[in-house]
Structures are given as structure tokens and as C-alpha cells.
């Protein structure tokens, strides 16, 4: 796995990493009401999460966001690793978008006003996939 950072990766890693790290740090200080709200939103799309304590869920989510954000910002973590993490993370966020009523226009993938903050996570998915596709391309060319 190549650890050499490519110039095109830098703005993507910084933008996504700073955004996700900040989100994790904010959740780290979540009070009970915020934990309940975040947990409630997540359980609407992923019912299996109901069995988790809201405070524990938000603490785990915070830790994951801090880890992923840091991995994106630290150039020694290979792009394929952060790409896989970012793709998985953003995929779950887009799952929230697709499964939560009121976030999409009826019969469409187009967001409602309430859905725009979640729908924008498609950019995180695109960034993660770009890292993965680039790694596959490099492997096919024998660069790693």
C-alpha cells in the first residue's frame, strides 16, 4: 500500500477530515437531550440501534468521527484505508437520508429543505470512492 500522498488528495482529505473531526468533537460534548435526539434520528433509519443507550451511542459515534477525521487529516494513513472508512461512514449517512420520511421529495431522490443537510453527504461518498478507485487503478498498473 502506497503511503505517498498525491496532490489531488490533499484538499479532499483536509475538507472531509476537518468537517468530520469537528462533528465528532461537538458530539463529544453532547448533553442528554442532544444524545436522545441523535439516537432517535438514527433509530428511525436503523431500528437495531434502539437497543443501545443513547449516551453510549453518541459517545461511540463521536469516537468514530474523531478517528475517521483524524485519519483523513494525518497523511500517513493510506488513501485506500481512509477511502474505505469514509465510504462506509457516508454510506450510513445516506442510508439515513433514504430511509427517513420527509427528507426526500415524494417519489424522488431529490431532497426536501429538511433533507439538504443529509443529502450533501453524497460528496463524502464520492471522496471515499475516489480514494478507492485510485488505489484500484494504481494496483492494476502495478504501482503498489
From TrEMBL:
<protein>
    <recommendedName>
        <fullName>DoxX family membrane protein</fullName>
    </recommendedName>
</protein>
<feature type="transmembrane region" description="Helical">
    <location>
        <begin position="80"/>
        <end position="98"/>
    </location>
</feature>
<keyword id="KW-0472">Membrane</keyword>
<keyword id="KW-0812">Transmembrane</keyword>
<keyword id="KW-1133">Transmembrane helix</keyword>
Amino acid at each position: 500500500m502506497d503511503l505517498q500522498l498525491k496532490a489531488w488528495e490533499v484538499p479532499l482529505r483536509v475538507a472531509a477530515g476537518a468537517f468530520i473531526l469537528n462533528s465528532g468533537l461537538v458530539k463529544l460534548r453532547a448533553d442528554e437531550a442532544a444524545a436522545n435526539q441523535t439516537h432517535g434520528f438514527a433509530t428511525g433509519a436503523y431500528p437495531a440501534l434502539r437497543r443501545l443507550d443513547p449516551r453510549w451511542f453518541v459517545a461511540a459515534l463521536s469516537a468514530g468521527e474523531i478517528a475517521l477525521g483524524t485519519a483523513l487529516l494525518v497523511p500517513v494513513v493510506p488513501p485506500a484505508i481512509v477511502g474505505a472508512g469514509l465510504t462506509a461512514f457516508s454510506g450510513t449517512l445516506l442510508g439515513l437520508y433514504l430511509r427517513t420520511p420527509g427528507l426526500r421529495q415524494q417519489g424522488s431522490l431529490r431532497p426536501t429543505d429538511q433533507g439538504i443537510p443529509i443529502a450533501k453527504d453524497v460528496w463524502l461518498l464520492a471522496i471515499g470512492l475516489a480514494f478507492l478507485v485510485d488505489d484500484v487503478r494504481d494496483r492494476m498498473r502495478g504501482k503498489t
